[in-house]
Amino acid sequence: MKVDGKHFRSIWRERDGWSVGAIDQRRLPHEFVVARLTSCEDAAVAIRDMLVRGAPLIGATAAYGMALAMREDASDAGLKLAYETLVVARPTAINLKWALDEMRATLAPIDPVERAEAAYARADEIVEQDVEINRGIAANGLALIEAIAAKKPGEVVNVLTHCNAGWLATVDWGTATAPIYLAHERGIKVHVWVDETRPRNQGASLTAWELGHHGVPHTVIPDNTGGHLMQHGMVDLAIVGTDRVAANGDVCNKIGTYLKALAAHDNGVPFYVALPSPTIDFAVHDGIRDIPIEQRSGVEVTDMTGRTADGRLETVRIVPENSPVANYAFDVTPARLVTGLITERGVLKPDRASLAAAFPERISAAAE
């Protein structure tokens, strides 16, 4: 996608051929900074501290982390240590484990002297696969926006999204934003309501930043505004991303997604979830019961960072010193509230049969 007219991806191999460059998303929207990852531990910290975030990008970063590890120690012990270091970096996004399993399956059977080269090659494949998957999501989701645009010719199609499921959460294009970007490039009048997405404000700081740099009309709103907009006919459809989809169609996404789905259901607004197939976890059969929900530091709730009037970046506390806080990072939206799942293989019903029919190879992988 574009930043001031220049194409960027969220992660890439640097010109030296082995180190990894990634946009430091902790610094956005106020500073555009590129971090250089040179070790497996660098990759683990980038994932854990949310220098990179978004399920597909976490997977891509983990893949490169394995490659960096193999460059340092390609022994069986080194492979085992790299896997164990990276797999615990974030607990909810299933793409992390998927990418690591793919890397281990490639590397374990071959001679250690060949592992570093093979690791970089497989990591590159995972990165390119993500881009192609997201292009498929863009094309399949575009049809939904086109159908709405056809019913209101000349008018704007209003899309509500939650958290950041844009190109910054993937390698390129994004998931929830991919159909929006394609619609914009096709000349469809599209406008995005961007939830701020407390407590880390990924909507306000990331989604708004990337939409603005790509020229897509948008408006940032407080998290609790979506229901009001839906009541007054100001949202044509909602599209969100996801960190894990259970085999029964339950969807785990950033905290607050469930409430948006309830409001959409109450007001007859279509509620879609855009996802790459590696996000489907066929080993989990009940999302509400079985998907682990990450609880993050309370500092994310008590403190906020922003730019002052004189240009300084400052962090301030907004919660009383003695007030305890809870910070559940995700919630699960039951399949009954989801209109459809936008995947690279079409828009699917959120149920076990549809997911299994579309991605039978993922069922086989989950059984192994």
UniProtKB/TrEMBL annotation:
Pfam families: IF-2B. Keywords: Amino-acid biosynthesis, Cytoplasm, Isomerase, Methionine biosynthesis. SUPFAM superfamilies: NagB/RpiA/CoA transferase-like. It catalyses: 5-(methylsulfanyl)-alpha-D-ribose 1-phosphate = 5-(methylsulfanyl)-D-ribulose 1-phosphate. One of its GO terms (biological process) is L-methionine salvage from methylthioadenosine. The active site is at D243. Pathway: Amino-acid biosynthesis; L-methionine biosynthesis via salvage pathway; L-methionine from S-methyl-5-thio-alpha-D-ribose 1-phosphate: step 1/6. The record marks C163 as: Transition state stabilizer. Its EC number is 5.3.1.23. Substrate binds at R53, G54, A55, R90, Q202, N253, K254. The keyword Isomerase applies. GO terms for molecular function: S-methyl-5-thioribose-1-phosphate isomerase activity. It comes from the Bacteria. InterPro entries: IF-2B-related, IF-M1Pi, IF_2B-like_C, Initiation_fac_2B_a/b/d, M1Pi_N, NagB/RpiA_transferase-like. It is an enzyme of class 5 (isomerase). HAMAP family: Salvage_MtnA. Belongs to the EIF-2B alpha/beta/delta subunits family. MtnA subfamily. Catalyzes the interconversion of methylthioribose-1-phosphate (MTR-1-P) into methylthioribulose-1-phosphate (MTRu-1-P). This is Methylthioribose-1-phosphate isomerase. It comes from Bradyrhizobium diazoefficiens (strain JCM 10833 / BCRC 13528 / IAM 13628 / NBRC 14792 / USDA 110). The gene is mtnA.
